[in-house]
Amino acid sequence: MAHKSPHQQTKSKTARRILVNDRPGHPFEVQLSRKLAERGHTVQHCYGEFFQSPRGALEKTAVDPNNFSIIGIQLNKPFAKYSFFKRMFQEVKYSKLLVTQIKSFQPDIVIFANTPSEAMALVYWRFRHANVRFFFWVQDMYGIAIRKILSKRLSIIGRSIGQFYVRLDKYLLKKSEQIILITDDFRPLLTSWGIDPAKTHVIPNWATLSDLPVRAKANSWAKKHNLADKFCFLYSGTLGMKHNPELLLQLALHYQQDNDVQIVVISEGLGADWLQEQKAAHQLPNLTLLPYQPFADLPDVLGTANVLIAILEPDAGIFSVPSKVLSYLCAKRPL
Q1: Which domains are delineated in the chain?
Q2: Measured between alpha carbons, how far is residue 245 from residues 144, 167, 312 in Å?
Q3: DSSP 211
Q4: For 208-233, how does the pLDDT look when each residue is reduced to its tens digit (9 = 90+)?
Q5: Higher pLDDT pick, 242 / 122
Q6: How many Cα neighbours within 13 Å face the side chain of 290?
Q7: Domain named Glycosyltransferase subfamily 4-like N-terminal: which ranges (predicted)?
């Protein structure tokens, strides 16, 4: 009797066409897309090439099935991540590109993860009469986050804009056929918004364990960056509005006179740019700043650390969960 391939062994009895849109291109989302394809579904994984973020394995490999594809969506201008109004117009452009991609692929199911509310809303409206099922994989409470941030910056106007995004999130949650939350902590908020609990499910995020083997400190990446013989505090990931890069600066200042200690920050964008300015102003050779590293290097990057750092503002816990901690745990290093 002939042996079945792994793909045949797990093939779904009812194969679907599934489009997964995860704009940052994070590791575990694309791992899910691969697993769905292994089960016999035809899967297209979309991400934003223009978006600054740590990324997963977004190149198709020789072992990927033929029913799996990866599409990078690109804008014609740099993404204005920290300019609210410019970003809003670019989200509209992004939503139009998503509509084009969905029309081309013709999925039965679209799973949205890490997709801004305004882009999702325009896609939902465009396909409101189509036979497409939308699943909302809620990674952050986007509207709550915007309301908190803009209320601090723009007072009454900021609260009004934030409240618009909260209403937009309510609309998307009500229109989604299924909702996947990453924590039970989001449930009370959805209940207060009148979201049907029968269509709400909790699946915690995970680390791509098979891609993150434990590595020794004196690895090739550490040696390349002259870190193999240093005690390293290492931060890798986004430094956005829900983080405080000042904490990393204070850590570097604290160990400024200790030549055996190095603070390593791997990030891009506003927070990383600010740290670059502070490094020059305070003359901090013990602060190493690097751009996002290739996903294949991540095991060595994490292995270089003696201590790994995660940062989240106190009130950010209401609307966000720091998934980088899961990858950190794979390295078997203190946090």
Answers
A1: 6-202 (3.40.50.2000), 209-330 (3.40.50.2000)
A2: 22, 31, 10
A3: G
A4: 999 999 999 999 999 999 999 999 99
A5: 122
A6: 24
A7: 31-206
Phi-psi region of 9 (alpha: psi -120 to 50; beta: other; left: phi over 0): alpha
CA distance 162 to 152: 11
Q: Is 3 exposed, middle or buried, given 0-12, 13-18 or 19+ CB atoms closer than 10 A?
A: exposed
pLDDT score of 143 more than 90: no
Length of the chain: 335
**pLDDT (tens digit per residue) in 64-91:** 999 999 999 999 888 887 777 788 889 8
Sheet holding 133-138, edge to edge: 68-73, 42-48, 17-22, 109-113, 133-138, 178-181, 200-202
Asked if 43 and 18 count as a contact pair (C-beta separation under 8 A), the reply is yes
Q: How far, in Å, are 135, 246, 260, 282 from residue 254 at the CA level?
A: 46, 12, 13, 12
- Per-residue confidence (pLDDT) for residue 19, from 0 to 100: 98
Handedness of CA 222, 226, 228, 234 (dihedral sign): negative
Whether residue 261 has pLDDT greater than 90: yes
Q: Which two three-digit tokens encode residue 238?
A: 């986004």
- Tell me which H or E stretch contains 200: strand 200-202
pTM summary value: 0.87
What span, in angstroms and rounded, lies between the C-alpha atoms of 177 and 184?
Answer: 19
